[in-house]
Design brief:
It contains eight helices and 13 strands. The strands form three sheets. Strands 10-9-8-11-12-13 form a six-stranded mixed β-sheet, sandwiched between helices. A five-stranded mixed β-sheet has the order 3-2-1-7-4, with helices on both faces. α6 links the parallel β8 and β9. α7 crosses α8. The longest helix is centred in the first third of the chain and has 21 residues.
């Protein structure tokens, strides 16, 4: 079995990390338990049925209580942290810090020692982050998508927003405006002003002159519709899960380097333009599906 305890960033980072090990589980017939996913589990149909967030899925009904899940996580994390320090049970227990390990852990290329221990003992991912997958075979991708189907309450809200947006034009473009924490991330390199996003939106209109374009604005900070005068725009709900999956319903996506828009592109198999150079006059050929399969 594999146990994930590494709380690596926010929602999309956690999704990609869990997805990596679901793909491994699917390909190599492993079992995964993700105790680092507690705070998001209620939003997804499969994880919401199981206190322990297991794959392959199992049902374990429980009364949701944040204090209980926080206590379970703390006890589990500290126990394995202690076992890692005293370095016992080495034959059947492997504890990994991804920040200092270069072990191959992709579905297409996985370390044989890791696989042996995961099948015959216990592997614990205690700390760290690993770059997101860039390719999956269809069976693994399908397993990931099936596990992360959102609850109907979120789906219904998303479909209302998308239906309203599609009434306004022919092409729906999701714009991920990442503010907030991006003021400091990478020294603010990817924190773009609203005027920059408006220039990107204008560029998209210019390269599609014969189409009516609608923009779905998703952001981690409050956006005001009047700031986008001159564009057909709809504001997403502002809910972190609903905005993420609303982006996956769009025809095209625009956003800064972020696992958030990458997940939307992967999940919806929709082309994404990652904005690294705000002066670049992009074309439709610059839009790529993240992890196309």
């Amino acid at each position: 079995m594999i146990i994930l305890l590494n709380r690596c960033g926010q929602l999309a980072n956690r999704l990609f990390m869990f997805a990596k090990f679901i793909a491994l589980s699917q390909k190599y017939n492993l079992k995964v338990m993700n105790w680092a996913f507690f705070e998001y589990q209620r939003h997804f149909k499969q994880s919401n049925l199981d206190l322990f967030c297991r794959y392959p899925k199992k049902n374990f009904k429980f009364v949701r209580n944040k204090k209980v899940t926080d206590l379970l996580y703390f006890l589990c994390f500290q126990s394995f942290r202690f076992l890692n320090k005293i370095n016992i049970f080495k034959k059947r227990l492997m504890i990994i810090d991804l920040s200092s390990s270069d072990m191959a852990l992709d579905a297409a290329n996985c370390d044989p020692n890791f696989l042996w221990t995961a099948k015959n003992g216990l592997v614990v991912i205690l700390h760290g982050w690993r770059d997101v997958f860039t390719n999956l075979d269809k069976p693994e991708a399908s397993a990931v998508k099936d596990y992360f189907v959102i609850e109907d309450e979120h789906k219904n809200e998303i479909e209302k927003v998308i239906d309203d947006a599609r009434k306004l034009g022919q092409i729906l473009v999701g714009v991920h405006i990442r503010h907030g924490d991006y003021k400091w991330f990478c020294g603010g390199k990817y924190f773009y002003s609203t005027s920059v996003y408006k220039n990107l939106m204008e560029r998209f209109k210019n390269i599609n002159p014969d189409k009516s374009i609608v923009f779905l604005i998703c952001s981690n900070e409050l956006q005001i519709l009047s700031d986008f005068a001159g564009f057909n725009c709809v504001l997403a709900s502002g809910h972190r899960v609903e905005d993420l999956y609303a982006l996956s319903y769009c025809d095209y996506l625009i956003g800064p380097p972020s696992t958030y828009s990458m997940w939307a592109s992967f999940y919806g198999q929709k082309p994404l333009y990652i904005v690294e150079n705000t002066k670049h006059d992009f074309e439709l050929t610059d839009f790529k599906i993240f992890c196309e399969y």
